[in-house]
Amino acid sequence: MAEAAAIVTTLIIATAVVAAAAFNVPAITFDEGYAPLFGDKNIIQSAGGRTVKILLNKYSGSGFISSDIYYHGFFSASIKLPSDYTAGVVVAFYMSNGDIFEKNHDELDFEFLGNIKGKEWRIQTNVYGNGSTSRGREERYQLPFDPTAEAHRYSILWTRTNIIFYIDDTPIRQVARNDAMAGDYPSKPMSLYATIWDGSTWATSGGKYKIDYKYAPFVTEFTDLVLHGCRLDPIQQLPASQQCRDFEAATAAADYSSLSHEKRAAMLRFRQKYMTYTCCYDQQRYPIPLPECEVVESEKDKYWKSGDIKVQPKPILRRHRGKKRGQARNRAVVETNGQAVA
Predict the structure, then answer these.
(1) Which residues form the active site (predicted)?
(2) What stretch of H or E contains 157?
């Protein structure tokens, strides 16, 4: 049994390492690209700055921000989330320019919403352009692994024509720009953020379950920090599109900027198995679907008019009884091309 567990652990670690290298983008240290945003005492760097932990305790949350602003690119980090009871805890890895454009900001989010003990973390992606939060383009998913057991890579590709969210090397969502989206497509330079904070008023069952600080500190670990974008020079008077012309051409040629037949198939499998809410099937908010949505009638039948899926996916995290003192042992399921590896 111990030998089998070691094999599973090796598979999980190997998968994370492969995913970290899959995109062939350079990782940086914390000081090379980021600075503290708030809660400085709750930000802990490793020696060399390759790993950074942000903490939430009863005194403060914490977060960091990129030292530069970016106009398009590929942005990524490997993230390990807090375990145990995490109701009310919100972890976010996102792009935004809300500090510059208060009323018409753009935003691209990975948002992680904690849960009560024994329940899985939920993950949400958001796309906002020009202050379009009233036309929020949100989606929620379960995960095909335990995000608290090992770090997994979460990536955002943002170009002039395309947005792709990745988990490890699997695309989970694509938003292709079209004319009908107009200003709803993020189009202004943004910074990168990572934060952890108390969302007790809304994050878990609409605020029914609050943070219990006896489980604090809640610790999120970030590694493999990637800021592979076009850094804008605030001194230059050239428009962003001109400053970033060469970089955008190189980005467009990168593997992660387009979806091959195999990648698109992997994305569809993920969405069919793990998506639990999508704005594209939310008929209550959007009687006329948002312009970028591709409505599939057979898939639409799986969702209520609220956009929530009718039958929730089965939890991925499985518990097995250990030999010693009957302790439970967690095992994450590693998926390769849609098939589980035990």
Answers:
(1) 107, 111
(2) strand 152-158
